[in-house]
Amino acid sequence: MSIEALADYTTQQWNAVAEKVMANIPPGLFINGKHVDALDGGRIASINPANGQLVAEVAAGSARDVDLAVASALKAFRAGDWSRMAPRDRMAVLYRWCELIDANAAELAMMDTLDMGKPIADMAGVDLPSVVETIQFMAECIDKIEGSVTNTEWDVMHCVLREPLGVVGAISPWNYPLLMATWKVAPALAAGNTVVLKPAEQSPLSVLKLAELFVEAGGPPGVFNVVNGLGEVAGQALALHEDVAKITFTGSTAVGKLMLQYAGQSNMKKVSLECGGKSPQIFMADLEDMDRAVAAAYNGIYANMGEVCNAGSRLLVHESIHDDFVERFVTAGKDAYVPGDPMNPETNMGPLVTREDQQRVLSMIDAGAKEGARLAFGGCVPEGLESGAYVSPTLFTGVNNDMSIARQEIFGPVASVMTFKTVEEAIAIANDTIYGLAAGIWTRDLNLAMRLVRAVQAGTIWINSFDEGDMTQPFGGYKQSGHARDKCMESLLSYTQSKSAWFRLSGQR
């Protein structure tokens, strides 16, 4: 069943897929081309956050399992069946992998919906197409990796080569379980590395299937391994491992800092981090289309339940258009995202990933109200959905940048409106944060837009749009949002290292 065909699935059909998936949960970890149990017999419960029911108990790896997976990956790398495979042959494997993902689309989509409550329509319409696009793009880049020959002495030839790093340890988040894993695994594999992936403990199912399909596509055993487990156990072991050449991590800023420490405590491995965000959208008084800007504002914070690292949670609105902006936001945005059953293709907002996350977000909302922000709508558990980890779309006005809801990453559907008078004030508010992942700028003045692009401290900036782009666009942040660049050719090259070869020739001039 292709990804395209999923658009016609009904809730009844999706429920049938869910039954099939739950009856065929991958039994364990994926090491050296096969599913294996955790050596110590550890287990993690996968809970459906939409209803609190158990989906499955999956293997929880320990440091011993990480050792086994890294040894398998290192052996595969040294064998060269993948690392030294002809570029076009490696490309062919990745293309076949995409075909198999397409053929298993319904099952893969359902795994993430069951694990973290993502609406099935988002999986079918956004995540899975992006997974395939990512792998295809990285495959197309393989034979575009170039070295150089520099201009040197007459009897010297100097080559700069690009080579894979070796074993890459990847730690992926739960908010886009399949897609964020692919953003790491696809460029690492395309560059010729082998991989050990540690998915978030909240959402391990889909990547086990992803690794299985890689081998089915012709990927050699041991090249792509998956070790489920707790971050403080399996994740730490992977980041500290002496045979891992690079760790790539997406998650909280606090854990990102630990990754840097682990690299220093072990083998000084390379580290790529994509961490938290508190992204501003700046709405200037001269913006061209108020309705389009407002739609970008509520889509930028309520999509994916607000569980997005670059979510546009801080809405900086010029004081002259504030009342009009808020009125339109309330009118159009209050019911734009309606929480409901993730298995229903009409649902565009599911639960948060866990009950703990639900309570954390609700406590942040309470703190915002106590600090003096005005609750325009939301801020509660939707009626009739008390059995799940749901939070209604929420809007605060009257927010200042000293409030906790303006400074802390909420990772939920909570928007904060702040006002400014001058461009200088907007820049100051936008940059007054430890984060710098993304930003949006709304103005019809090209000179002003360019000034703001230069001044705002963020790695990804959209002008008169938000959260758009394609695979040519580097995605990553400034400051404590990390320094990685996902997607794009730059991402693939970050999984390589340069080697200088200086040839002294014996020929006469």
Round the mean pLDDT to the nearest integer and report it: 97
The name CATH uses for the topology of the largest domain is Aldehyde Dehydrogenase, Chain A, domain 1
The CATH architecture of the largest domain is 3-Layer(aba) Sandwich
Weakly predicted, low-confidence segments: none
The CATH class of the largest domain is: Alpha Beta
Helix percentage: 25-40%
Shape: globular
Strand runs, count: 21
| Widest sheet: strand ordering | 14-15-16-13-12-18-19
Taking the sheet with the most strands, its summary is:
7 strands, mixed
The CATH superfamily of the largest domain bears the name Aldehyde Dehydrogenase, Chain A, domain 1
Helix run count: 16
Oligomeric nature of the chains? single chain
Radius of gyration: 24 Å
The N- and C-terminal alpha carbons lie at a distance of 65 Å
What is the total domain count? 2
Explain what the structure shows.
By secondary structure, the chain is of the alpha/beta class. It has two domains: 4-275, Aldehyde Dehydrogenase, Chain A, domain 1, CATH 3.40.605; 280-470, 3-Layer(aba) Sandwich (Aldehyde Dehydrogenase, Chain A, domain 2), CATH 3.40.309.10. The protein contains 16 helices and 21 strands. The protein has a seven-stranded mixed β-sheet, sandwiched between helices. The protein has a five-stranded parallel β-sheet with strand order 9-8-7-10-11, sandwiched between helices. The model has no long low-confidence stretch (mean pLDDT 97).
